[in-house]
Amino acid sequence: MSGYRFTQYVPPPEKASSDFQKLLKIFMQLVLITSGNVAEALQWLTELDRQYGLTNEKYGIGDFIEQLKREGYITDETERGEIKLKARSEQHLRKSALEEIFGKLRKARGGEHNTVHSGRGDEQTTEKRDYEFGDTPEQIAMTDSLRNAQINHGVDNFFMTERDLEVIESEFKTQTSTVLMIDISHSMILYGEDRITPAKKVAMALAELITKKYPKDTLDVLVFGDDAWQIEIKDLPYLQVGPYHTNTVAGLELAMDILRRRKNPNKQIFMITDGKPTCIKQGIRYYKNAFGLDEKILARTLNLATQLRKIKIPVTTFMIATDPYLKAFVREFTRTNNGNAYYSNVQGLGNLVFEDFKRNRRKTW
Fold this sequence. Notes:
By secondary structure, the protein is of the alpha/beta class. 39% of the residues lie in helices and 20% in strands. It has three domains: 16-85; 119-171, no CATH class; 176-360, von Willebrand factor, type A domain (Rossmann fold, 3-Layer(aba) Sandwich). It has ten helices and twelve strands. Strand 9 and strand 10 form a beta hairpin. It is flat.
């Protein structure tokens, strides 16, 4: 009797590559926590291996380090012989952050960022309609139009008129320019809670999301402490908290300047912070007050919120704090700007940013 005979499948023993992937996942988390300090991350990894037995006799931390070099994640070919991350590691961090925080995108329907308006756009649908003046030749459904002409005028004396034409319906795709503001004041690591690492993860995930899924959108990232300055997306893993106060005004002013140069009709600001504004700049000197809500600082901040509302740029504030008086400030700021506000712990931050970004992409401000 002919046929197939099946035997028991015995999987081969685990290879070094699986050990490498296991260690790589831990190493990348440590790299993010240490702000890109590879040597410190490897020290932590070695200590974790000592305590929890992450490796075995066949594949140790030394093998892992050599494989990191071979596969282009790190290099020690620097002027001072320091171990540095390479571009592949930076890309891996962004991709991992996207999978960790925005994993639900895999369950969503592709292209979910269209408006409810139909017309001449660049996202075709399955719907068809009669030709209208202004439709382009590329929109004409040729097979359907030929069929209409045959039905309306016959095959023997074939000709086509405007009334025979059908076009493929399309939808306008919204394009959005987003500025992400990250608070790097000292309070982002106070009280034993690391708030800057989740903020970096969110920024990297958002960057990867926009680059891959919405390439026509723009994302600019800035940080603010005593002052505000723009950073490149590739610099996010190395971001560190400094001995700074919180100059929210400087951050908002820089965000406005960036968005003025963007041509997209939809513009928005995401601000991740854990506290109140405590600093403004007056000429060349800083005015600071970290004790409560200072009326002088508050007035400048709310004035900017009003300006942003007038030019239709909403600010969504993600507050990583639950103090009642901080919530009161955020509520007043949000009401003045007509924006949105969320109060989150560090674990829920990513999902909130994703949900708001997805919803805002369907708006036309």
